[in-house]
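Hi V.,

You were right to ask for the full record rather than a summary. Here it is.
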Amino acid sequence: MAATLAGVPLQRIHPDRGEVEPADAISGLGWGDLAPAHRPYLALNMVTTTDGKASFEGRTLGISSETDRQIFHNLRTQADAVMVGASTAKTERYGRIVKTEELRAKREREGVAPNPLAIIVSGSLSVPADVPLLQDPESRVVILTQAHHELEDVKAQVDYLRSVAGPFDLRPLLEQLRTEHEVRSILCEGGPTLNESLLLYGLVDELFLTVAPVITGGANALTIVAGQPLPDLVPTELIWVLEDGGELYLRYRIGARTSAPVPGSG
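Predicted structure:
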């Protein structure tokens, strides 16, 4: 189904009650203006089941509703760039980031380019070249990697930012995205391993979390953050809660940031 701006009104249940459409809830977030001097502002968007699992049968499709997809695509209108890990790009078959002219027009109204930069993170450069995003001549892609080779047989416009061997520290690469590619804001869509790396180095400013009203079970199923336990608890501050048919849409601030607007409150 093509992504559009229209959607079923959501119930805002925190901090106060009201009704708001997805396109209005995800509008005017102003992430670029909040960016630190040395790196882009970074928001993370994930979906989880009631029992804390981030996928079903290896993909998010089974736990993602139409309303969740509306929020997903509207969030893509807010950032200069959309980031994803190589495994997620491969599994979810990532294609062109913004799907419709309507969404591209909204991006322009939000003060960002109609087509965002796509960022793929792959330390070993193991993303397959047949991922639809890499076969789209209209897409601009930057790959963050530690590998020295380049992908062959890609049609997208692909650049590479490389870090030194050792622990894959994304901090200097995000600094390069800010200074060399003028990226002030990033929406990251996972996966769990990339999320862990970003949180480890204090690079996440916001979290948008959809809680789907389903239970999947499975001891080995993915959660939204993988890898080793973080060295310290990461505090979050709840900004707002929206609801539709028992599905919850949560927006958190990571650490202490400036105040954020309440959707639909004027």
